[in-house]
Amino acid sequence: MAGNMIDPATDMLGVVDVQPTFMPGGELPVVEGDAVVPVINRLLAGPFLHAFATQDWHPRGHLSFASSHPGRKPFESIEASYGPQTLWPDHAVQGSANAALHRDLDQRRIELIVRKGFRREIDSYSTFLENDRRTGTGLDAWLKARGVTRLFLCGLATDFCVAWSAENAVHFGFTTIVVEDACRGIGLPLPSGGTTMDAARTRLEGLGVRFVTSHDLLA
Description:
Rossmann fold; six-stranded parallel beta sheet
């Protein structure tokens, strides 16, 4: 798939949670999370004329923060009203410097910024639906109104916000592609073996999501 196969009328790049909070030095760092920024900038300067971005945007005391549950530690799981919920260190706190989009991200072609996770009692990984799988962000309607049919996703983290976004994108009828080298993952170990990265890829491939690299798109 070469860059000249990107159709500006129907293809869009989704830039998921490229925020310092998820990068080295941040509150919930993803290994090499900052390495996605130059790759995404090359995509935004090259084949993609249109993009949207998302921001994790949590109030203090958010349900997903381990600090909101005395005696609990980050990366443990609780049962929320909508099902299992991983507990995280406090991160992406509204108005904090680390919750902003990364200062080096080229935003000139980013036409919409979706803030998610701002409801105190519901976490939100996906760009389309919060974790109750019912509360929508409105992104699907915006994309369809723009005539978008194919979505390319990148950002942080591969196995959580990118993966859940890709899963929902398929659900809403979009042809969905993940740009692997423009993402980084967390890779939490699973009790059944493997990691959240392994599980995410298996789940997405089963839904027909394709994986490409930026080199494929920039060739």
